[in-house]
Amino acid sequence: MVFQQSDSYYLKEINRLNSEIPDIPLEAVIKQDVLRLGVRFSKDSLCVASGYKPKDYFIFSFDLVTLEDLKQEGEYLLHAPEEVRFFGGDHDLKPTIFSVRLNPASPYLVEIHSGQLVLSCEGTILAEVDFHPVPEFYNSTLKSGKTISQIAPVLEWGYLVYLTVFRLCQYWGRDEECQFCDINENYRQQRKAGREYTGVKQIEDILEALGHIHEKDSVSKAITITGGSVTSRLTGKDEVDFYLQYARAIKETFQDRWIVKTVVEAFKQDDCRRLKEEGGVDIYHPNYEIWDERLFKILCPGKQRYVGWEEWMKRIVESAEVFGPQNVIPNFVAGVELSQPDGFKDIDDAVASTSQGLDYFMSRSILPRFTTWCLEPLAHLGKQDTPPLEYYVKLLKVWRDTMEKYQLPSPPGYGEPGLGKAVFSVSAFMDVIRH
Ligand code: SF4
After folding, report:
1. Residue 169, ligand 1, Cβ within 6 A
2. 430 with 30: CB under 8 angstroms?
3. I want to staple 171 with a disulfide (CB 3.0 to 4.6 A). Which of 246, 257, 302, 342 is the partner?
4. What are residue 301's DSSP bridge partners?
5. Which pLDDT score, from 0 to 100, does residue 31 have?
6. What phi-psi label fits residue 88: left (phi over 0), alpha (psi between -120 and 50 degrees) or beta?
7. pLDDT for 4
8. Does the C-beta of 178 come closer than 6 Å to ligand 1?
């Protein structure tokens, strides 16, 4: 029993899972719970802290309420940090980083207690916290007048420069957009709120921003180039050429200063070869979102229409011949298998389905990774219950057990693995790696 005298349902559940599945560390369990439920901040916690990097809304909203609702709740919430690191407390928790998903109704609260920033759950203090520091290069200005935080924001405690070069998706409307995704709605709400939010980023802005980062920063090690799908043309180019131009320009200018990753469609093998040979892309993320074929068709109707489940999975496997299997890291959105009305009703059925996909890829030395589903209110799936914590703890265990069964190395481009070291902030898969 970790949290002994708490009446909190959430802490009791953490206790139960910690005793039933003891080889998943407590820190990882807490992190998954905060990610699935979101977090809130007391007003003084955000007023007292300084020198931290606020949320840049780098692609999706990743909040459990709309910006409008946040504003109603209190303007100060619009300045919440990108990431929080918790550590210490009565259980001497190892430093663990989570991405901030705002939810004014969350049981998790960042507040000030005895002059210190802490994370609490329904009145029980769990740990001390600090916030993602603002990097020095964020103060540099670009010739276009745009800010670095909009053009080349950093995540994962500064490890990853995240370039959403196209902030919309040409999968359009309910019949095409992935049903859990709010990219197009988030773009609209950010613009409505008067924020600088560039739809298509200029290569010149990006190279200039990266020049500042190159000059002033030694923490960032990887770059992600991503954005929505391009089904027709964008600035006169198809999807491969559109994303390729950014990779090529970055590699030509900075060579191997950063590991370059692209999160794009599952391309045919010839196009993958172009990404690697012409663009110098190191890591390829053809995200399959969900393994179950029936649910893929329902939840990813655009991907189904333009590529199809079978072809998508086949292309992932074929891309490993181009990049090397260790450099193909497709993402899935953990928890959407349990979304209603079409998803699984039972946790174990959901984990079993997802684990089939893990085995399929890991047996081929391809290591899928996952983000934690955030129930964004403007996504088509809309308001519903978040998957139970038990699902996430069981998933972490099966993910790590399968990885160990096939003796796969830690994925490149994610920083150091392991408890107390991992920086990946939207799920705990890196925290639970043991080697
Ligand atoms: S492909 Fe799907 S998940 Fe990706 S941006 Fe488009 S709608 Fe969102």
Report:
1. yes
2. no
3. 302
4. none
5. 98
6. left
7. 72
8. yes
* Token reading at 213: 């980062």
Q: What residue spans define the domains of the chain?
A: 9-131, 136-405
The residue assigned the tokens 């590529």 is 307
Instruction: Using the mean position of ligand 1's atoms as its centre, give its distance from the Cα of residue 183 in Å.
Output: 7
Query: Which burial class, exposed, middle or buried, applies to 212 when counting CB atoms under 10 A from its CB (0-12, 13-18, 19+)?
Result: buried
Residue 183 CB less than 6 A away from ligand 1: yes
| Ligand 1 atom index nearest CA of 181 | 8
CA-based nearest residue to 292, from 245, 335, 235: 335
What one-character DSSP code corresponds to residue 345? S
Question: Does ligand 1 lie within 6 Å of residue 177's CB atom?
Answer: yes
- Return phi, psi of residue 169, to 5°: -135, 135
**Total Cβ atoms within 10 A of residue 72:** 12
- Pocket perturbation via mutation, ligand 1, pick of 59, 164, 175, 183 by most ligand atoms within 8 A of CB: 183
**Ligand 1, pocket-test mutation among 61, 171, 186, 242, most atoms within 8 A of CB:** 171
Contact 319, 267 (CB under 8 A): yes
pLDDT of residue 1: 65
Ligand 1 atom at minimal distance to the Cα of residue 176: 7
Cα 33 to Cα 42: distance, rounded to the nearest angstrom? 19
Looking at domain 136-405, its CATH architecture is: Alpha-Beta Barrel (3.20)
How close is the Cα of 360 to the center of ligand 1, in Å?
23
In sequence order, what DSSP letters do the residues of 65-108 get, joined into one string?
S-HHHHHHH-GGGGG-BSEEEEEETTTTEEEEEEE--B-TT-SE
CA angle at 154 for the pair 148 and 157, rounded to the nearest 5° = 145
**pTM score of the predicted model:** 0.96
Three-state DSSP class for residue 228: coil
Cα separation, 316 vs 99, in Å, equals: 28
Kindly report the protein residue whose alpha carbon is nearest to atom 8 of ligand 1: 181
The reply to whether ligand 1 has any atom less than 6 angstroms from the CB of 228 is: yes
Residue linked to tokens 């924020």: 195
233-280 confidence digits (pLDDT tens): 999 999 999 999 999 999 999 999 999 999 999 999 999 999 999 999
pLDDT < 70: residue spans in the chain: 1, 5
Question: Which residue, chain included where needed, has tokens 């003891």?
Answer: 22
Nearest protein Cα to ligand 1, atom 2: 178
